[in-house]
């Protein structure tokens, strides 16, 4: 940087005019000490009265110097990279280098590109080293990656301490390491990492620009032996002719300035220094004039400190304003832009350490993210092949992307906890060999887990470890405490473990591999076909009552409309009442034989006969269904019925269902727990009154298994309360969870899942009478016939209303009298009860005479001698009662024309 500063001033003076302001450098050494840096700054400001200070580079030193510069109103242009120092908090501070926080997005993009879920950050135990960690953690969290561990390496740590820390990292699952160390400390770290076996296949190492930009200062033997396959990032510097020519000049000048130092390469920090001094020179030209104003001295008083005696610069504020927003489009490091006092980020270069140096594999920009080709320059990474990154050689010489984690400690297996349960072995069962103590897990959940592990894109060795799961029904806190503490012993837990919100606070679940939901199973009722009263079940009670009421109502309406004009509806009171019931109910089977004469009655009967037709058809269909198809009806159709009836409720021992039942307002005294399907069956068979339960409430997988075994005795009733189903359990933040979840989906979509279900649960279609859901009653309800009854009621009521209006009009003379109201009502009732004279005689006489004729012809057939020639007419015969039905005596005559029989027949034919 020293050499670059001198060359920048020489280039400025060589191109500036004779009248331009000359810039004179005054160099001081901070000696890597904060106090020395502050002392040097005070000397330059007080004694030399400099108008600007470039440097220092360390953050702690810069923190002192920028405070001093603020008091003297002199801009401090520093290449410090620590993000702890901000331009907003220090108005006279101008950053001449990229802060280390600017590279965190690049690192996060690389991690996201390879889908790594956890990383370990290794950084130096210093202010500058720790400053990047919060920014890096935030950038990783934005892509869903966790910093599982932060490893702090002291600059004074010996090799044994470094090796112990690496062994500690090796016992963890994470295999992705981000290193933010100075070159001298990083060299020792990678040497020990090679010794600890952490530079082999399966590991991933990313180094920040703090090391990548200074990689040529690392011993080549360290790079070749211990850093092969490492990924690094550094600011991208375009390879231009200006830079190439400047590099040649810099090398010559560097050898002159430092002849005893080993050859080194020009770093980006030197290029930033050159561009920073060039920008300062341009700012000086903008504000410079015929003369440079001096410092404004402080008041001359006794006992002034060095800080009080500094004075203030009259030029510093002008330089600051010019430097805070300045751009060098032809800078050696590309576009050197300072906006609001901050150097703006440039593209980053991603490299892969191969051999003695690094190879470019891609780039990163704020707009385009990771790409194998930098669009603005057109530079292509080696063997890009249109991928996001070029071909990468990982540690161990592998070209396979590390998955980012491994089973802790080489040689160990994934420790899989398996619960030991007393029942429901179809789901999970643990067996321990008494001789070898080998643990074997069988059952539906175990088989699914084995298939999922085989479906992973990599091998995961595992071993089963049995454990006793606490009874969460007794104490839900015990259940949560168990899951919170269990992963000190286990890496995963399998079995019929339900995913729940409370448990997910302490562990991570994979995607579920079973259906979800909680429901109830209740006994079915006896076969209704054996009931002696099955004929009343096709219709609900409300429909029966409504139908009966309408039968009576229609009968009454017909009687009202007919009894004044129709002899069939007259007679004694008992006969009229009987006729009301008889006539309407006879329409049920269309057996009514009474003739009606009123058009109102005919209108009412047309509508009512249609209603009866629909009712009888529906009743017949429903009864036929009940008699021919077996119906599985539940004893209880809703869980609320259990609460109302005070029934006992059963659940599986150790299940969280008890908590759900409490939230549904069930009494705890009504709970009974069971462990096996046989206990479920026994409890339901006995019922609540005999020491059993009225229903079993459990998760759907258990209930499905139970119904497959006892499908003809029990039925599932709703509603179904949603749950997340069964899932495999892993420690919080386990990198295995995403891969296992994807494998679960793969297994569920394949044929193997059906085979596992068939193996442990059998064919669910073996019980055709049971589909797992409660069958609602087939009885017809009133709601289905409201429209029909409404039409029948309106039509009958309308006919009745019109009839009464006409009747009142015909008897209006009664209503217009001055008699009391009760006399009027009595008169109206008497008029209503009187038979109305009608002209129906002609229509009824033939019917009566036909009867007489038939009788007489029958007598004639028995005595043929009484059949003389009969005249066509006989005026002596007449109808005496007006209805064509004469008494026997009136059918006879004493005239000489013939015998009484002859007269009767003659009279009959005369009527004909």
List keywords for this structure.
five-stranded mixed beta sheet; 912 residues; eight-stranded mixed beta sheet; alpha/beta; ligand-gated monoatomic ion channel activity
Could you characterize the architecture of this molecule?
This protein is α/β, with parallel strands linked by helices. The relative contact order is 0.07. The longest helix is centred in the C-terminal third of the chain and has 30 residues, at 599-628. It has an eight-stranded mixed sheet with strand order 5-4-6-7-8-14-15-16, with helices on both faces. It has a five-stranded mixed sheet with strand order 20-17-21-28-22, with no helix packed on it. A five-stranded mixed sheet has the order 25-24-26-23-27, sandwiched between helices. Helix 11 (268-287) packs across helix 12, helix 15 runs parallel beside helix 24 and helix 17 (599-628) runs antiparallel to helix 24.
